[in-house]
Structure formats: structure tokens, C-alpha cells
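Researcher: Quick one. four chains, 1300 residues in total.
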Amino acid sequence: MHKLSNKVRILIFIVIGFAIYLLSNNVDELRVYQGAQVAVYVVGIASIILLTGYSGQVSLGQGALLGVGGYAAALSQLKWHLPIPATFAIAILAAAGAGALLGIAAARLSGPYLAGATLALAVGLPSIANQFTVLGGEQGLFFDVGFPPSSLGADFTQYKWFFWIASLATLLAIFWLQNVMRSRYGRTWKAIRGSEVAAELAGVNVARAKILAFTLSAGVAGLAGALLAMTIGTVSPSAFPLALSFSLLTGAVLAGVTTLGGVIIGAVTLVAIPEIVGSIVNRAGASEAIASNLPHIVVGALLILTVVFVPNGPVEQMRSRRLKNGTSL
Amino acid sequence: MKSFNRRKLISASAILAVTALTATAVPANAFSPKSEVGVSQTEIKLGITLPMTGAASPGYNKVPAAMKAYFDYVNANGGVNGRKVTLVVKDDQYVPTQAVAKTNELILKDRVLALVAPLGTANNKAVAASVNPGKRGVPVLFVNTGFSGFADQKKFPTTYAILPSYVMEAKIMAEYIKDNFAGKTIGLVYQDDDFGTDALSGFKSAGVKFAATVGYASGSQSATTAAGWVTKLKAANCDVVILFGVSSATAAGLGTAAALKYAPQWILGSVGGDATTIKASGVPAGVLYNAVGASFLPATTDTSDEYVSLFQSIYSKAVPGSAFDNNVLVGMNSAFVTVQALKAAGANPTRASLLAAIDSKGSTFASAALLPLNYSKTSHVGYNGYWFGKYSPTGDLKPDGGKYTLYTTDSGSGAVVKSTWKRPAMPAKGLPN
Amino acid sequence: MTLHVENLTVHHGAIQALTSVSFDVKEGELTAVIGSNGAGKSTLLRTLSGLKSATTGTATWRGHNLLHGKAESHVRHGVAHVSEGKSVIPELTVEENLDLGAIWRRNKNESASTKREVFDLFPRLEERRKQNTETLSGGERQMLAIGRALMSKPELLLLDEPSLGLAPLLVKQIFEAIVNVTKQYGLSVVLVEQNAIGALNIANSGIVLNLGTIATTGSAQELISDPAVRAAYLGY
Amino acid sequence: MFQFINTLLIGITSGAIYALMALSIVLVWRSTRVINFAQAGQALTSTFIGFQTLHYINSFWVALLVAMIGGALISALIEVTLMRVLLKHSSSGAIAGVAPIIATLGLLEVLQGTITLIWGGADVLIAPPLSNVGFTIGTNTLVFSPMKLAIIIIVLALLALLSLIFQKTSIGLSLRAAAYSPELARLAGVRVDAVRTLGWALSGATGAVAGLLLVSNGNGSFSTASMEFSLLLISGFIAAVIGGLESVLGAVLGGLALGIITSFVLMYVSDSLFFIAPFVILLLVLFIRPQGILGKKGGRRA
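Model:
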């Protein structure tokens, strides 16, 4: 596919950023908070798309990498009192380091073994926090990005501030990810996903490419972890449960793992479904048990239906349908 | 031409992003500055998050119904200055991120006046940090946790804990052991997180020596892992064992010990000593018999107590067929204290007047507890002591010698002393003035 | 006409692998299908045995529609397919591979006597009946593959490159064995081979496939003496 | 000494249950090359079926049988309605390799949500059928009771039964053939689809036994959110990987090894390592012997 020039892309991102800015001024606090959640999910999902969609490796433990990022950010603030952007950078680096280690292990594994190893990681890693008092045990650590600057006015809420920070970080991350995927590495990963053997025959160092994919993906996940820590104000083992890993994977599948184009769909779905289902259930006057369980069922069912019927995700599906129908230029 | 396609895709996703967000952005009810959030002419709306489902839910999931039972009783008797008190319940599954999300919903969507009686240290720390009710001036009242950190009013200016801290509990327990089990070999099972760490520091400052300590990872407790604990405690020949964990861990420890014919003198922490949960989890009756437990409320079977008998009659009418246990008593007591705080906050309560009322009059609030509340401008910790007793063959905690002996202390290095405080009579019909 | 194929067209995704292929195999005859790599020979057999579905056309065996239903039902109508590359399961023992061939047969006495016949035909297999198939040589595996097919009491045998990768001496043995079983059981055989001479030498008739279409058909004798065929496929 | 023996006994009983779960995972893996992450959810559902049965017929053994049948039916249903369609639809494409894994995760959510809706989130109780009071030698009581003995006997019996089916019957031959080479099995007349469904059904029944034994090994209480069940999945999976994912014997050895090692770590190192120990064991196995104890070299990438 032909590529947009960088100038046009930068322009598009600025327009999106402006739209987000306008949006943040026109919705209430709850929506702004949910907007920040969406941004966290966008980054988390994008990290899975980089890994699964582009290099064909699966990770059921992405939540653990988010955890590494979150803890790194919180620790660096607590111990060294670094400014917030620096804590984000540390989160990215720390998670990338963990990802590299994981990638070295993962390069030896494939399919179910990799899935299982990352699953075990998702369960095992967060509980490490209990082993070292510096990590704050079950209660975890505080991570406080501070109040919005007073120059923004007294009405400027904390959540809006979170939303701004998260949106900016998200836009930068997605822009960078697009660059990576358009680069030589992106093509290499795609070749590996297509056929490992063929890629190897074509002279690709498969193991190295896989480790690199893991490293970069983990770095992005680390950013998502720091953003998550920011929106909930703490890091603790239970902030990065197995369910988080599954949610991100679900979002990635709903978004379509082969393209970044649908990432917002996956993220919005994750935030919106519990809300929509919850409000329907509440309106129907059903019990709390239904209200808290139905969203799980709906999300799970949606995941299954997507995998079966639109395995490449809705965006890719629409795109290929248009190509097939010949309506596309 | 293909680039056009790509561009369309990107701009389409941008538009999608914007519309998706705006689509969900249904404007909430217009905010009217005149009346306080959550207070209308006819209603005062409160909110609670706690585990209604999940591993931590047994026992605690009876709390909302108990609170509602008392609120309904008040509402049927004229309400609070003519307003009905309603409670919005959200299930947080004992997961901090969920607690944050649900608390946000309560504040931003349900628009409650205050949060009452939420449960859990980790959850409330996360809520305090993220939702930041302190900065918003949203009261978080009578939190069910003994985490000593909530005493820090700079960090948690609007949070009021109700339980004695775990440090206090450990110190008091140490004193009780000194009085009753001097010279015995003592073992400890604790949850290896802040909950247990708080307790460990209390035991340490009281100078208790343990022959064996078993710290289990939160969530790992089961009859299988408990077989390991018991084996260790037995190997160290412990005669007295303190179980300082959640109810499921307490149940696992007691049940497994019985199966392994190990019968030390048990001392159960107040958090895990919930007889209903222990019995429901298949622990043979009789295992709990003679174990030592602690509470600050009267025994649930003590019908000579005016609070217990009133609460029991209210509850049995509101939730027929449900056992009146300690969780119910805790829930109703929280509701009782809440109603006093609301009344003390004036004819048209606001968040600020509610907080001010607790700070100035909190220490005079009546409650079912056998100790006074200690709220003031400088203290946001509720109760500060316990009485000890033993469990009856039916699993009810009864005070030693039929008489409540209250020990009190602080979370620091203060001594443990016996309290001489006498609880004032209950307000007429259990309706605070 | 017992095997009747008409206008058979098969696709591999977007690629047309077979185009309007028509031929017949008479009862008790051996038809060799020759052609270069990628001519569609294996596809033809896989379609006939039900492993692959056809786009259009008809294929019947004694009136039974081979383009309908799955491979496991065709075998119940006497069609046995020995697929390319020593069609045996290495994780099973020799005897289990044979038993597998008869797994759908209800009468266990009959299958036991078929097993006896297979052992008589290939004594080497009996010697190694309890061994893992992995330990067998290439030739032995091919024998086992044919033996497995015979266990299903076939009437139409579809053989895909039985000589592939075997030493010349073994090739000769395998071809002899094929002639033997064909005669002994009165089988109709479709034999796909790269080794065109060997195949045509034992065949009654032959089909030359080229890029998915039939280039020539005729009796084996005619094909061997056809100069064009000789030049293209026989190499002399 | 008694501490050592008790530690070993704790390890063996929990290992036996891990082994069953591993077996259940292996059965599905062999029949369809899918790791079924919904397995623990299915086991939990079957256990609730057993719980429900006890309401009508007060016999643990009847409940076990009904749970096994229920588990088998649920599992078979999943194979027929979901896996078959899925494997046909997504045999190619970007996520072909991971699609089944993701689908089973979705299934896990659906199952867990559904049973919570039906049975509520509160703890329920299945009283263990035999005494859990340990045998006494002299003045010491072992961590070994009639119930634990029964657990080991049931696991061994089930194992013997499965081995017999696999090695000695033509159904077993079909199962193995379909696992190793579906195409050849098909050519030999094996109805591969039906055989796969059977493999899933066997797996479901095995998982049901694992679930009920897990509950009986403890004090009998469990809930839809029981931590033990998610741990059962992870332990089962790790055990299966240690055993090489292919063999019944491997699954059993893997389960026992995991159970015993974990038990010793918890006893002699620290109880707090509960969640980390299995993870470290898995990583060690994957690093040192990626093909598992009984796995064949090169099989790991297949």
C-alpha cells in the first residue's frame, strides 16, 4: 500500500489532537475520565498489535509488562523524584528491558508454549511485589503526576489533566508505532508472521527479529502501564490482574490485530460495553449480579464471534471487502 | 490513488474516535449550584463499593442489605429531616481498579453526597489517590479497614476509618496473651501484605516472640496450602496460634488443623474471625469452640444489649431468614452512625457541613460499640480497642466470664490499658436526634 | 466403466489446479497418471479420495459419487488412497498402522484374515509388527502403506508416487508388489508416478497431465511409443 | 522426618489433581492441537453441576458421575459448535495460530459469567464423601486421609482406564491416529470429526473429576470466583508442558513433579512463593528442556 508522506501524517495527528482538545472541553468529568481510560487501552492494545499482528507471537501476559512499566514509573518518582515525563521514559525502558528478556525466552517457543509461558508470567509477576518491601506489597505504591498547572484555571479538573497527558502520550506512541511498522522491521515481522521458514530462507534472523518485536512491544506496554498508574494513582499487584491482560488481548482482537487502524474501536469497546450493558441492565431493574456479570459474558461472546467471523478485525474486513468489490480506488 | 484510500482510512478513524467519545458523552443532569450534590428536597443519596461477588465477598456481601434495613427503618420514621436516605451499591470485586471505576461512577454519574462504609485497605488507598475525594471534598465515611495509614489527614483529608487499626489490634492481642497465656509457645499465621505487616509491627513493638511465623500470599489460602502451615506450626510445637488473616484463610487453617488432629489454643484476628463464613466453608462445628476472638461491638447473641435486640428485630423483618451475624451488626452500626452524622450536618446538609459535623461532634455520636468513637479535627480513626472472648459451641463469640473487658491503645508506642468507659443509653427507638 | 471422471475442475485457492479432466478406468485395470511436477497429479487423487473438494465436474466409482461426502465415507465404498510420501503414521506400531486400515470394518474375523494375507504378501512387516514405524526403512514404510490400504478391503486403489525416494532395486520390488496385489484382489488402480517408464510398464493405460489438463491418453503401450511423450516425460 | 513425609504427601495429592487437569489439557491438545484455556471454567461448571446434583440425590459418587457426563457434554458441545467452525474459518490469516487460544479465553469469560449468574457469587459447599482426618502413626498425624487416598486411587483408576482405551481399543487407535495424522486417519475411514468430539468429551469428563477432587481435597467450599480454579488451569497447563503436551504419562509425571516441588518450596523456603514457584518451574523447564520430560526433540515448534 502506498504511504502517506510524513507531512500529511503529522497534519492528521495534529487535527486529531485538536479534536481531542475540543472534546475535552465539552464533555463532563466522567467522560473525560473514560477518555483517559480509552487512551490507556489504545496504547496497551497497540503494544499487542505490534507483537501479535506484526510478528505473529501471542502474549497473554501483556498486563504483567504494563505492571513493570507502572512500577518503574512509581519507583522512579518515589526514589529519585524525577519529573513526570522522565518517569514515563523510565517506564518504557524498564518494560522494554523486561520484554527483551521475555523475548529471548519466547524466541525458543511458539504457539501454545508461548501462550502458556506468558500466561504464567501474568499470574506470577505481579505477586513478586509481595517479595520485596520496596515494591510496597499488596498495597503497592503511590504514583502522583500532580495537579494540573494553575494557569489552566481553577475549573480544570484532575481527570481532564490525566486525559490530556494520556492523549498526548497516546498520539506520540501511535505515530511512532506507525513509523516502526512502516520501516524495514515492520516488513521483516510481517514476513515472519507469514512464514517463519520462508523468512529464515530469505536471510532474516528470525530470533533477533522476534526479540526486537518483544522489546518494542514491551516498551509500548510500559508506557501504557505508566498511564494506567497515573489514572488510578497507584500501582499494586491487583491493578495488573490476569483480567487486564485478557482485556487488552480482547481489545486487540476486536480492533483487528493486523492494523493499527482499528485500535480506537477496540479501546472504546472495552470501556463502553460494561457501561452500556450496565445501564441497560439497570434500566431493566435487574440485580447487581446480572449487572456485574453480563458485561463479561457480552465481551467474551463478542471476542469469540470476532475470532470466528472477522478474524482480522472489522477494519481489515471492511478494507478487504471494498478491495474485493472493486469500489476502492 | 491508493494513498487516498489510506488517508481516508486515517481520517475516518479520527472521526470515529471523536464521534465515539461524543456518542458516549450523554450530558449528565445539569449541575445546580444551589443544592448540594446528592441532596434533594426528598432524598439524600449515599454510595458504597464493596465485594458483592468474588473471593472476598462471603460475609461482607451482607453489609449493604443490613445498612439498607436500618436506613429504611429511619425513612419509615420520618427520615433525616424529612429526607429519605438511599444507598447506591456497587460491586468492586475487591479489585482496586474496579473500586476506582465504581467510585467514579458513584461520584460522577450517580452523584452521591458521600461514600459510606466501603471496604478494604488497598481499594480505599487507590480510591483516595485516584478519585481523590479529598480534593473534591467528597466525604468517605466509616471505611471498614484497620490500615493505620488512613490516619494521615494530609493524604486523606476526607477519609474516616472506623475499625481500630491492625497495629492496635496486635498490641492488644499481645497484652491479652501476656495476661492469659504467659510462657506458652506461640505461632502466627499472617497475610503477607500491608494487612499482615501492620500486625507484625504491632506484635514486634509489644515484644511477642513467635516460635513459628507463616506468611501466606494473599489469595493462596486453601485447605491444601494450610496443610503446610499446620505442619510447620506442629513442628515448632506451638500451643497458641494466632490466625491473623481474612476469613477464608482462618477457615482453611482451622479446618485443616482439625483434619490433622492439631488443636492449639486459637486466637483469631477480628478480620478473619467471622463465624458465619467459617461455618459456611465446611469447617466442622466444634473446631471454632473455645477459640479466642476479638470485637468492639457487643456479641451478636447478646439480646440483653439494647442495640443488638433492636437491630436484630429490624433486620429480621427487612431480610427474613438471614442470620444476624457480625457483618450485619457492623453494617447496621455504620448506618446508625451515618444517620447521626447526617443529622448533625444541619437541615440542609452539604459535603462540607457533613465533614465539619463529624470533626466537631463525632466523638459524641452514639453507637452500638462498647468504645467511644474518636473522631475530632485531628483524628479520623474510629474505635480504638477490643474486648476478647471465646467462641461458643454454636460458633458465637461471647465475652470471657460473660463480662466485656475492653482494652484500648493507640497505633504508636502507647501502652495498652483497660477501658472504663460506659456506653450511654441508646437514643429512643434507636433513632438519633 | 467403473471409475468415471468427467469435466473435473479443481481450484487451489485462486489457482486452477485441474481443468476439465475426463477419463475412465476399467474394472481390474491399472491406469498410470504421469506428468511433471505441479501437473495436478496429486490433486487428482486427493479429489477422488475426498480430501479435496472439486469446483465442478463429476467423478463416480461404480455409481458412487466421489465428489460428495468425506474421505472417511469413500473408504467404505472401496476406495483406498495411499497418499504421497510413505503414508503411514510413524508414532504407531506397524501392526497398529495395519489395524487402522481396517478400523471401519465391522467383521473383525475378516480383517484378521486380511492381515494374515498382508503379512504373507510382505513378510518383513510381520517380523516388525510390534516395532514403532519410525524404525522402518523407506521401502518397508511404502509396503506398510500399501498394506494399510489393503486392510480396508479396497476395490479402487489410488497410489500416489509409491516409488518416491526409493533406491532402484526397491522401486522394482514395489512395482512388482503393486502388480501382484492388483491381480490377487482384482483391483482397479490409479497410479500417479514421476517414474513414468516404471509406471507405464506395469499399467494397462496411461494419462499424461500437463498443467492441470490432459495432454494425451492411450494404452500404456501407445504412450511408451509416442515420441512426444517419450521426449517430454520418459527422457529418451 | 514427619515434616518431610507430610510435605511429600501434600505434594502428591495436589500433584495428582494437577495431573488430571494436565491430562484434560493434553486430551484436547492431541485431538485438535488447541490449548483450551476455558478448561478450568469447564471444570468449575462441571463442579457446579455436581453441586446441583447433590441437591436432588445425596450421593457424592452419583454427583461425580453426573458432573462427568455434564462436563463431557459441555466439552463436546464446545467442540462441535465453536472449535469446528473456528478451525475451518480461521485456518489461514494473521491470527490463525492464536485464534483458538483467544476464542477459548472468550469462552472462559462467558462460562464464568454464566455460572455466576446461575449460582451466584457466594461460596457453596460440597461435603467431601470421605473423612479428611489424617491417618495417625504413633502420636503423629499424617497429611493423608481416607479422602486423599481416594483421590489418588481415583486418579490412578482414571489413568488406567484412559490408557486402556488408548492402547487396547479401536476407539483409542482412532483417537491416536486422528491426533497424529488426521488426513491419514480420514483415508483409513476414521470419522475424524466425531473422534475429535470424543476427545473433547473425554477431556471434559476428566476436567470434571479434577474439579470435584480439587474441592474435596480442601474443605469442600468453593465459589464461581474460586482462586483455586484459575490456579488449577495454570498448574494443569504447566504440568502438561513439563510432560511434553503429547503423552498421558507425561501429563501425570508433570503434575506430580509440579505438586511435589511446589510443596517442598512452600514448606522449606517460603509460603509467600506460592504464585511464583510454578512460574519459575515452568521457565526452568522451558529453558533447560523445552520439549518437556517426555517430549520429543523438535516437537516444541510443531
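Chain B touches chain A through 54 residues (CB under 8 Å).
Researcher: Thanks, that's what I needed.
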